[in-house]
Write a structure and sequence with these properties.
By secondary structure, this protein is an alpha+beta fold. It is built from 12 helices and 8 strands. Bound molecules: adenosine-5'-triphosphate (ATP) and magnesium ion (MG).
């Protein structure tokens, strides 16, 4: 029984519903399909996604069809998306690290079972209420939506901006594509910006082909071992990117060094310190210059 609409994304509408038979609250996502309902590949992907069983992955319970729409029934997670929390500057550097470590473990679980996510982005990470614990949503959905095509109203740029260069070129996405998108998601949380997002889809895709500004340069105050690992994940060549295990270890190793106040505050303080330093230097030069001209 549908109870309320939770939200909508590029591909469909999500509702909170009550499963009367098993007496549990569930999330139902309805994806409009364009004549590709019986696609076997879609079914295989959904079956693989449903076999994933990990605390860092939103469990897919069931898949059905109604009036040409695919209905995906999954675990309901009370919380907010990482996109929303990062946008509100609600997370500390350390909380972002803890979420990142969770996501590495969850993804590793999926990859070891041959399931690639293909659409990792802050909107597909649900942060559990009151905890820095994260769950990946929409596993296997990229294949269904490939078949359905992006709707005109969808947030196309929001999806493109996290896409690996190989996906943007239309090539098959392997585990390395997920590593790239996960790293870009964390890069954005720590730096406050997505380096590839532009005002339109064409400019965004064009930017994906170029290397992003290094996180190490944007946040020199973060542990170098961490920022360099994230930067390495953004290598345009998939075979040069670190493994999930390597990224996970780099994050875990730096957790104790990460600040526990909101990341935005640290970024602003960093900028302010730089600005004060610059002002002091300019002042000193002026005073010195003054002294020289007017002895
Ligand atoms: N299992 C779930 N439990 C709780 N909330 C959910 C669940 N699945 C989705 N949501 C919420 O529903 C909203 C819409 O999700 P949806 O996946 O449709 O959008 P999206 O991720 O922005 O786009 P896309 O279609 O590209 O995945 C999000 O705000 C998300 O928090
Ligand atoms: Mg989603």
């Amino acid at each position: 029984m549908i109870e309320r609409r939770i939200g909508s994304g590029g591909f469909g509408v999500v509702y909170e519903a009550w499963d009367g038979r098993l007496e549990r609250a569930v999330a139902v996502k309805a994806i409009e399909q364009h004549g590709s309902g019986g696609d076997e590949r879609v079914l295989r992907e959904a079956q693989a996604a449903a076999r994933l069983n990990h605390p860092g992955i939103v469990t897919l319970y069931e898949m059905g069809e109604e009036d040409g729409s695919a209905l995906l029934v999954s675990e309901l997670v009370e919380g907010s998306t990482l996109a929303r929390l990062a946008g509100e500057d609600a997370l500390s550097d350390r909380e972002i690290g803890e979420i990142g470590a969770d996501l590495c473990e969850a993804l590793d679980h999926a990859h070891s079972r041959g399931v690639i996510h293909r659409d990792i982005k802050p909107q597909n990470v649900q942060v559990v209420d009151g905890q820095p614990r994260a769950k990946l949503m929409d596993f296997g959905i990229a294949s269904i939506t490939d078949a359905a095509g992006l709707t005109a109203t969808g947030d196309v740029i929001g999806t493109l901006a996290y896409m690996s260069p190989e996906q943007a070129e239309g090539l098959e996405a392997g585990p390395e594509a997920d590593v790239y998108s996960l790293a870009l998601t964390l890069y954005e949380c720590w730096s406050g910006e997505n380096p590839h997002r532009r005002g339109n889809a064409v400019a965004t895709v064009r930017s994906i082909g170029r290397r992003a500004r290094s996180l190490h340069r944007l946040r020199p105050d973060l542990p170098r071992g961490l920022t360099e690992e994230i930067d390495a994940c953004l290598d345009p060549r998939p075979d040069r990117r670190p493994t999930l295990e390597e990224v996970g270890t780099a994050i875990e190793d730096s957790l104790d060094l990460l600040a526990d106040h909101p990341a935005g505050q640290t970024r602003h303080v960093g900028l302010r310190v730089a600005a004060i330093g610059l002002a002091a230097a300019v002042g000193a030069v002026l005073v010195l210059g003054h002294g020289l001209v007017l002895p």
